[in-house]
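Kindly inspect this chain:
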Amino acid sequence: MAGHSKYKNIMYRKGAQDKRRSAAFSKLSREITVAAKMGVPDPDMNPRLRAAVTAARAQSMPKDNIQRSIDKASGGDAENYEEIRYEGFGPGGVALVVEALTDNRNRTATNVRTIFSKNGGNLGASGAVTHGFSRVGLIRFPASAASADSMLEAAIDAGAEDVESDDESHEVWTAQEDLHEVARALEQALGKSPESIGLAWRPQTTVEIAGDDAELLIKLIELLEEDDDIQTVWGNYEMSEEVLERLA
């Protein structure tokens, strides 16, 4: 298993979690409602809902907001959201996978295409880049949850496939079918709740990016994340600590 993370979703770089809280709550609420609507409205019986609620709690979303989002799923006025995936290329040839929940496919497609084209990227066809990624489970814990060695030991015992730790977090990678079982085992072993649980697109190889391409790529990703319909953005980029510090 790896001992240090070389791949990060840009949304987890320093300071990014503190920005646009109201927009973050809106996206979390949408995911909770969709998860509750697709299964039973009980986090203990619905793994996707449990993951969504865990993510909301990690972002300090009020308990009442979480419950309203769950209740909304059974209401007659609940929106019908569609899950859509977009694939494309950013500056420097970086491959990007964009996941959305939308009630208007045409609006979302237009917005995503515009953001790509105006920031050094271009959209590709379905399957254009996902062949270079693996669909896996990802569980994130804060670095304070355990030492790197303790997390590694607990993850191995829980059945995880890989662990990457640094000064800010532990990332535990699993087979997608093992995600929730491993998450439960880690919570019990550590006595701590994760910051997030979910499926991820993990790149099989990465592209080193710096200079103007790095700056433009970050802008492209941040604009995508600002769109209300976009839930997650994954990429195969790698940036040095020096580049991230300069652009943070």
About this structure: The first helix runs from residue 21 to 38.
